[in-house]
């Protein structure tokens, strides 16, 4: 790899700790803008640790993370969090708040209420960004409902809207389809794809390999190292999946889409 600045999120020979153990070792990967990248791998492979390192929440034990060609460590925190949004596995959201209010949190609204200092006075641009995020995630229809009145799938779309309201360049998602039925899970992927078509760079940790097959590119982690990296057809091979998961699978093509089927 050259040292030329590349747009996107990038790790170079990254090692990172989770607790006291080294959860990532020598990970070199590139997550470009306008691309849907999925990080896959068995439990404990280091996927969440990678997301935390990309967010700057875990400092590298070796190597580095770059954001749009600049080392992450050189970015100011506020600047970095405007560029990269994060949707955690479990979002600590205020249950009694209205949907619009929750999405507005993505732009720093209501900071005082949550014990934070507002970054800027609320503007029409903030209001417009909230409306756009609600509309793009099909949540405008229930903007006046409380969060506690929504189904799991609807809540996940509200969480996505909250992240999109910040108008980030990159969005990191940790198992965004966890606990969702097939319809809602596909819905999340469809919304992600729309945002990617608009230029957003998405990095999603996914456990469902058939959902991951819908990404543009995959990074397969195993025991903290990169086992495979590239388009789904080159990563989701029976050999790679046996090496990572210890499960024999076959891959099929259905209408141009790759499908992974366990043999037992
Ligand atoms: N707080 C911690 N203290 C010690 N070890 C940790 C801690 N968090 C994670 N680990 C270890 O680091 C390794 C990577 O964990 P990580 O959560 O990144 O994996 P993952 O691929 O996201 O797993 P999962 O799919 O189960 O969520 C695992 O071996 C895990 O046990």
Automatic annotation (TrEMBL):
Residues 9-248 form the ABC transporter domain. Gene3D superfamilies: P-loop containing nucleotide triphosphate hydrolases. Keywords: ATP-binding, Nucleotide-binding, Translocase, Transport. InterPro entries: AAA+_ATPase, ABC_transporter-like_ATP-bd, ABC_transporter-like_CS, P-loop_NTPase. It comes from the Bacteria. The keyword Translocase applies. GO terms for molecular function: ATP binding; ATP hydrolysis activity. SMART domains: AAA (SM00382). This is Iron ABC transporter ATP-binding protein.
